[in-house]
Amino acid sequence: MLDICSNSSNVFSNYKRTPTIRWLSMDKVKLRASLHRRFFAILTLYTLPLLLNATQLPSKLLKNDLLKIEAVQLIDDMGEELHAKTGVNAYVIATNEHFPEKFNLVKYSKQYEANLSKPYVLYIFAPYATITKKSEARGRVGIIPSSDAVRAMYNYDDVRDAGINIIAIKDSNTDEDKFNIGVLQAYSTLADNIAQSKGVTLEKTIPDDMGTMVMILRVLIYSGTAILFWIFILRPYWSRRRDGK
User: What pLDDT does residue 78 have?
Assistant: First the structure.
């Protein structure tokens, strides 16, 4: 039994032992501690995208204020395959910064030069950037190649429109979902364009279809949540039941 009054020199020394105190067994204290640990572990995992952004981003993502970790992983997988098969790097900046009208994205990109390996193309997604103050329109995309040779490997309009067409759709998807899907589709189109110019085929890119993109993203998110629920809730409960505790 746990005895919180056993030390006669502590501040509880004048209290008598009561049945209320005796019910606090070591097993129950351990159970509470275990539940607290699981709670903070789950909290940590749900804040992992923020931690990744603050410390070590995946190699193809230079800045991320918008994308879910599942989308980030898909981008990194496509980017790694693209580089392995073509030697070209494709990077992403997904920022929530509110750039003013006529903001220079090329100049902005210079601060990331230390993290860029040539040959490369940099895709910048800034949905809150101001297009014109008069119309209050927002949302800009920048596609910046390291050379004219790289620029010839993809169709600028196709890459730009692949993302914008999804984000502009008026439907039941949230802006957050459309940002994720739009960036994924634009990056996939960019990667496929470059691969085709090199005469190779990529296996990890995604079909240009809104429904497919939504399904893939949601499956990843739901499966990740299910795995976490099993690890931290169901498996410990099943183990206690199996051991008769």
Answer: 96
Q: Which CATH number fits domain 58-225: 1.10.1200.10, 3.90.1300.10, 3.10.310.50, 3.30.2280.10?
A: 3.10.310.50
Burial of 232 (0-12, 13-18, 19+ CB in 10 A): middle
**CA–CA distance from 225 to each of 35, 69, 126, 222 (Å)?**
18, 12, 28, 5
Residue ranges per domain, the chain? 58-225
Helix segments in the chain, DSSP class H: 19-22, 26-46, 48-54, 69-86, 105-109, 148-151, 156-167, 175-197, 210-229, 235-242
Residue 44 pLDDT more than 90?
A: no
| Position 62 confidence tier, pLDDT thresholds 50, 70, 90 | very high
d(CA 245, CA 219): 35
**pTM, rounded to two decimals:** 0.65
C-alpha–C-alpha distance, residues 89 and 109, integer Å: 15
